[in-house]
Each structure stands twice: as structure tokens, then as C-alpha cells.
Write a structure and sequence with these properties.
Helices cover about 15% and strands about 10% of the residues. With about 220 residues, it is an alpha/beta fold. The protein is built from four helices and seven strands. It comes from Catharus fuscescens (Veery). This is TILB protein. Keywords: Leucine-rich repeat, Repeat.
Length: about 220
């Protein structure tokens, strides 16, 4: 037997009647959309369509105002389980509206390319456990100060110099293939002279030394 709430399980909070909660009041919302009508038919769950109706332009505008993503300053959109293309498209639609977000978490969303997204005020971005392979696939983040990209698939440091003109202070690249590149720390700091911390370790004297004198140092760093 189906529960009384069964017909609501694919609805977002904006679709519930007489609910005044706005997007900027939610720190960890689930933002993925429900399955398409065709998918529901194949799942034999077409009964959920009874709650759906033709949405007017006025209702679309009211929903946009209720989502209120433009006024979010801190938002956690991790673990969204974006299993279908329309889920990813809706996710990116929301990211494009985050014009005032300063702290954003996008952990474990199987993301591959956000280069078309711009986050003009973002100071802290956590995109751990995704599928980025290059710095070129990251969103435009001109005000970034703390960036975490642990456990992605970034193979080279190509494109990292794009962050040279940002106020980036802390960068985490742990468990990416590029971490095993020869002179990894020296290369990162040479491309980002204003960087203070890499992978949780402050900038060390040998991180600034030229390649021809690096072997003169006998400092052991315990991670």
C-alpha cells in the first residue's frame, strides 16, 4: 500500500502549497528535479502526475522568487545524486543564479565541467570528490580565497596559472594524479606566488627554491 505522502515524493519544496520558505534560508537543500513524465510512465508511477499541472508564467515567477538563489551567501549542494541529464541541467541552472554566494560546497556530485558558470563573489569553494580533469573545467571564481579539489582526476597543473590574479590563499589537491608530478609543490607555488597553504601545509623555504638547488635541502616534511 502506498503512503499518503507517496504522491509528493518527487515535488520540490517550491511546489508545495502555502509554504513560504525561501532558498536562501536553506543551507543544505535537495535541488534535483523529479523524473520526467516518460520516466514515471516506465516506472509505473504515473499516478504521481495527478499532482502536476500546467504552470502559468505567474506561477513560474513566484517560484523563482521563492527559490531566491540570488540572495544565497552560504550554500551546501553536496551529494545531490545527479543521475540524469535533466538533473544536471537543473543543477547548473541554480549555479548560474548564485551571484552573491560566498561559501559553496559541491562535494561528490560527479561534476565534470562547470566552465560556463561564474560565481563572482565566491571566496570558499569545496568541490571534492568530483570528476574534474583540468583546472579549465572549474567555474569562474575571481574572488576565491580557499579552494578544495581533493579526490578529483586532475592530471596536470595546466591552467592553474589562471588563479594567479585571484586572492587565492589556500589550495587542496590531495589525491589527484597531479600530486605525483615531479617538483609538484615548487610548480604550484611558482604559478601561484601569493598562495600560502598547499594541501594543508604552509609554504616552506624549499617550495620557493629554483630546481638546480633543490637537492641541497635536507628537510624532511612529515605529512
Amino acid at each position: 500500500f502506498k503512503l499518503p505522502s507517496d504522491s509528493f515524493k518527487y515535488l520540490g519544496w517550491c511546489d508545495l502549497e502555502e509554504l513560504g520558505v525561501r532558498g536562501n534560508q536553506l543551507h543544505c537543500p535537495r535541488v534535483r528535479e523529479g523524473p520526467s513524465e516518460e520516466e514515471l510512465f516506465f516506472r509505473k508511477e504515473e499516478h504521481t502526475l495527478k499532482k502536476r499541472k500546467q504552470v502559468t508564467d505567474t506561477e513560474k515567477w513566484e517560484k523563482r522568487l521563492q527559490e531566491n538563489w540570488e540572495n544565497c551567501a552560504e550554500l551546501n549542494l553536496s551529494f545531490q545524486d545527479l543521475g540524469d541529464l535533466y538533473q544536471v541541467e537543473n543543477f547548473q541552472r541554480i549555479l548560474r543564479r548564485l551571484i552573491r554566494v560566498e561559501k559553496l560546497w559541491l562535494v561528490d556530485n560527479s561534476l565534470t565541467d562547470l566552465s560556463a558558470i561564474r560565481l563572482p563573489r565566491c571566496r570558499e569553494l569545496n568541490a571534492n570528490k568530483n570528476h574534474f580533469t583540468s583546472f579549465k573545467q572549474l567555474p569562474k571564481i575571481p574572488q576565491i580565497q580557499h579552494l578544495s579539489l581533493a579526490e578529483n582526476n586532475i592530471t596536470t597543473l595546466s591552467g592553474i596559472s589562471d588563479f594567479r590574479h585571484t586572492p587565492l590563499e589556500s589550495l587542496i589537491l590531495k589525491r589527484n594524479p597531479c600530486e605525483f608530478q615531479e617538483r609538484y609543490r615548487q610548480l604550484v607555488f611558482s604559478n601561484l606566488p601569493n598562495l600560502k597553504i598547499l594541501d594543508g601545509i604552509p609554504k616552506l623555504p624549499e617550495d620557493c627554491s629554483p630546481p638546480d638547488v633543490r637537492f641541497f635541502y635536507r628537510i624532511c616534511t612529515i605529512l
